[in-house]
Amino acid sequence: MTAAGLTGRQPAANDHSMQETDLNDLRNFVAVYQAGSFTAAAKRLEVSKVAVAKRLGLFEARLNYRLFRRSTRRLAPTPEAEQLYGHALQLLQHVREFEAQLSNASPMEGVVRVTCSYSMAMTFVGELLVTFQRKHPGLRIELISTDSVLDLIEHNIDLAFRIGNLTAQSMVGRKLGTNDIVLCASPAYLKSAAPLKALSDIKNHPVFCMNYHLGLKFAKTGTSLADVMGQPRLATNEGELVTKLGLGGHGLIVRSKWAVKRYLEDGSLAEVLPKFPLTNAGDIWLVSSAGRMQSARIRAVFEMFIEESRRFL
Q1: Residues of the domain holding 30
Q2: What are the C-alpha distances in Å from 8 to residues 81, 128, 166?
Q3: Is residue 59 located within the same domain as residue 95?
Q4: How far is 44 from 136, CA to CA, in rounded Å?
């Protein structure tokens, strides 16, 4: 049976076509499903585009039904692929959990995948991981920095830093602290700028902030940040840019306190109107899935973060 002759049938109960399927077939299929193209899947799997397409074609031939509709731009999953995807994710997760249990024989060897925001990676997560890996050279660390919330199972994540409330029952985690927000600026800017004695004075200054900080309120007055500042000079999704603008003396900035803590401590930035604190933006969590925590190496990195992150938060 060639790929051109594939049908859309479901395999019969006594169909033995799946007997030849190995885990790499499923990993290849999941990568194509998630990436949406052979090129992107090949990059994720670190193999050639031809190898990905060939393995998928052989997999479809053994199943005797098509998993993706091909087009020049994207691969669209068929209903059969949608059904298979959920089962494949569960199976691969069980395999990873079993491998994690076996890895306890050599607890500090293997891969640990961590995800956090870009600002966290730059502020403390990257440094802590490098220091820990130096002590345990058998570990291979993969750090995925993104402001998107990645699904732990779908993206094969061992540990994730999250801000907000921990609601997913499938996750276990530890609260690291509160995501306090500060209004601050460089001393040089404050020395030359208009006075800042009341919230109403903020409108006389350029303000740079994250998009999602605009809705925050001042705890004592209930006044929103957006109301007192009018239109921000710049609102962005890139926190490190906001910090850089503050350090450069361009105006007031709104940042998570952990992101600018070292600059507040060394005097590069100074808090503005500290008697009028902003409401916090949720809690900071370190999370994992219950199955992953059976791995000694993942538990070790988890506990390291619990202990070492305190001085940064």
Answers
A1: 3-101
A2: 11, 50, 41
A3: yes
A4: 26
